[in-house]
Amino acid sequence: MSDFLTKLKQYAEITVKVGLNIQPGQALWINAPIGTPELVRFITDKAYEAGARDVHVEWYDEAITKIKFAKAPDEAFEEYPAWRVQAVEENAVNDGAYLLIESRDPEMLKDADTRRVAAFAKASGKALARWREYMTSDKFSWTIIGAASPEWAKKAFPGLPENEAVQALWEAIFRASRVEGNDPVRNWTEHVAALHERKEYLTRKQYRKLHYRALGTELTVELPQGHIWSGGSARNEKGTVFSPNIPTEEVFTSPRKEGTNGTVRSSKPLSYQGNVIENFRMRFENGRVVEYEAEKGTDTLKAMIGLDEGAQYLGEVALVPHDSPISRSGLIFYHTLYDENASSHLAIGRAFAFCLEDGASLSPEEREKAGLNNSQTHVDFMIGTADMDIDGETADGTLEPIFRQGTWAF
Question: How far apart are CA 35 and CA 27, in angstroms?
Answer without folding.
Answer: 23
